[in-house]
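for the record, two folds in this file. i put them one after another cuz i was lazy. first one right below, seq on top, structure tokens after. the second one comes after a little note so u can tell where it starts
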Amino acid sequence: MQLTTSYQNTSFLNLQSKFCFFEVRDASAVLSASCSKEWDEFVEILEKFTFSGDVLLAKGGNKSALVSELESLFYKKGWMETRVDSEQILYELPKTGRLTGEKNKILKISGKNKKFPITGKTSSLQTIERINLLTKKFPEARITSTYQEGYQVDCLKGRVAIDIEWNAKDGNLDRDLSAYRAWYDFGLIDGAILITKDITECRKLIHDLWQDYLCTNNLPKNTLPPVDLKTSTTTSSDKAVERIKRGDAGGCPVLIVGRMLGWKSVFP
């Protein structure tokens, strides 16, 4: 799948010195047009977000201070961590029979004028109401269901999903893109945004900061930084791009945001 460049025509003009952008299916154009309020909030947060050198060099854990800080900016604006579960219900109905005296709830599957209860007024019924209707009039009907605990995203508002994957295992990208694909197919979102790091720029930045820190504190030059610069199994923009190019998100427009360089060189 080819990458698109609609982000060049959006409000990212002043952000391209701090971030790099990759997208499929013109995600920036789609989201800025269909979800303008959420898009403006997203751009505003990117413009304001910075982090210090000590945060960048902090040891890994369940969730870094950098990610928590960025998430909090979204949560303050009403974005919410959200999971969507799904359930498949199968109705095995008798071949003959009808609901008498109920004009728009007739179940008649034999004869010329076939009707089905999941039409007309019954289409707006909640599942429990529909099940009660069928089992009351047709005790021989068999109903089975499969419940699936679903996908979770870090931030959801309106029809935009956002995840922040700074230093997680790269398998998280598969989970995130699967969520976007499913949610888009369900008709719940118009597109998604994944914020991560550019690994090359990040390594260079950490190396430079660490050398400054060693020099300032008269420490041996061979002292290793508290974060691993050699690991190749964590999330990054290049790994995310590989996945969207091969179509892992299906038809969902996805924007990848990487190379976070809004930092201040501050150490304890």
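(here's the note) second protein begins now
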Amino acid sequence: MLLWQADELTVTTKINPTAPNSARVWDYWLGGKDNYPADRDAGDKAAEILPGIIQAARHDRAFLGRVVRYLAEDVGIRQFLDVGAGMPAAVDNTHEVAQRVAPDARVVYVDHDALVLVHARALLTGTLEGACDHIDADTRDVETIVCEAARTLDLAQPVALLLLDILNYVVDDTEAQATVEGLVAALAPGSHVVIAHPTAELDGERVHQALQVVMDMGGAPVTAHSPQQIAGFFDGLELLDPGVVSCSHWRTEPWPPGKPVLQYCGVGRVPDREAGR
């Protein structure tokens, strides 16, 4: 508890409770309590324009649980790099899902939000058999992420790279693509890249209006991409079935799935380089 208080004291000057923050708005949509009135106000205004945005956030979270379980259980991956991790949820954070399957799984969380890091370091601790670490870095700071992650992860072995609802905050398309390529370049063959990203494919202009209202209230710049643009992030990777689809449709059981939501996702495998691919 004393460590928690000390961490809080060191980051209070970095936290602005008067402007909406993407991680805290997301936490609010997921039913969490780690948010401020400004976050709830922004979240409500966005949901008034686009009610489906709340369901999209919850399906994104459910997708996280399914894909981490699949990668740990079916693929056998034991290392996870969660970039832009956001606020810890009450249950089924990345390390909890992975270590439920494999207690020796190693998980590194990356975020650049002061309040997120306070909560993460206090709550996301993992099993004794495995490991759980936290990196303070901007998503675009590939060099720092790779260097710091190597303290906990063996990058010569397969890693699951999670980029859920974070590339939409890298609003320059060239920079976003370069970020993905830089992170993928550090991964061993057999690694998997998981991306979830908002799209205006289903709700058109209302998606842009909902994102704009949060930005107008002081939130960080954010963008939506088409499914084709999201698929572009997987260039050079082996895109797994069912491809880039709604988070509510990725390997959902029972089948058929429910309605599509504005969060689309996909999973790609880093090919074997010796195979010449």
